[in-house]
Structures are given as C-alpha cells and as structure tokens.
What we know:
By secondary structure, this protein is mainly alpha-helical. It has ten helices and no strands.
Amino acid sequence: MNEFLPGIDPSFFNSTDPTNVSTTVQLILLLTVLSIAPSILILMTSFTRIIIVLSFVRTSLATQQMPPTQVLISLALFMTFFIMGPTFSEINDQAVSPFLDGQINEQQAFDRASVPMKEFMSKHTRQKDLMLFLSYADMDRPETIEDIPLTALVPAYAISEIKTAFQIGFMIFVPFLVIDMIVASVLMSMGMMMLPPVMISLPFKILLFVMVDGWYLVVKSLLLSF
C-alpha cells in the first residue's frame, strides 16, 4: 500500500501512542468540518439571501433556465466572498493565523473565530427569531453577543435571511406581475384567449429589465441590504 500512498502509514491509525491517537482524532474532526462546510457557507453567510433573490429574479422573468443555475450560484458565491471579506479577514487575523503559528489551541481558535461570525449574523437576525430558539431551549437571555449560542443563532439567522429575501423578491416580482396582467387583459379583449400571455409578455419583461439595468439594481439592493 505504501507504494501507492507513500505519505500514509496504515499502522498509524492502529497506534496506541497518545500523540498518534490525538492526531487521528484531529484528522477525523477536520474531515467532519470539511463535510459540513457547504452548510456553514449557506447558513452562516450572506449566500442564502443572495441566491433566493437571484432565483426570484429568474422566476419573475419567466425565462426558464436563463441565466443558468450554475451562473446564479457562482455569482452568489463571489458576492458572498465580497460581502463577507471583512469578516473573513478578521477571523484570519484573530483565529486562523495564531492557530497555525501555534499560539493558541483549537478551542481558543474556535472561540475567537465565532465572535466575528456572531457579530455579523446578529446584525441581520430578528430578535423575535432568536428568542424563539432561546425560549424553546429554556436558555437565559444573553447579555452580550459572545454569550449567544451558535445552536440558536444559526437557525434564527437563517429564517431571518429567508424572510428578508422573500421581501426583496416580492418587490421584484410585482412589476413583472403587472406586465403579465396587462398583456392577459389585452389578449382577452382581442379574443385571443388561446394564446398564452407568457409568450407575449416575456419580450416586454426582458426589455423592461434591460432598460432599467435590472441586474445592476438587484445587485446594488443586495449589497446595500448588508
């Protein structure tokens, strides 16, 4: 086996040496964290709000798969990295770099890294949503942001983001709904009830979206919302 994986010794995982056992546990924990990294990215950053709003834009335009899902997700990812840049930099300075330099241990690194994330999430979390989870778990009202447990803050932040995204999506949906209603009324008055209104309204919705520079306005609204 060492011929194919020269850097891995199979007997390493069967060792009873405390140092090797500790390293094995750390490796398992690292793999676990990597496996849930997508969930962390989705629920603890601005990604949720951005991707929901972008999906609302595509749905309101009724352009089926245009822009493609891969494009929307990629745009949402890069916008997330842009918005979360200051927070990630703070985490790197306070937790990641000191941990890699051996100045702090894993628990200290986690505690330091959680503070910037808590500060970001608490700014966009409704108190009502947070109290829902705190009261359900019979937790005391936290006095500071650092005292808020992540087990309650993360789901509270997620449902707050979903509500905010739906509010923005509703405002985006209304103008296009008006166009659909106008086109449907005109077609009915002309006796063309068998012609799907979506086929006629689609070019007008795309034209309106392009004329007002819709993507610029949507992205600007998302950036300002944070």
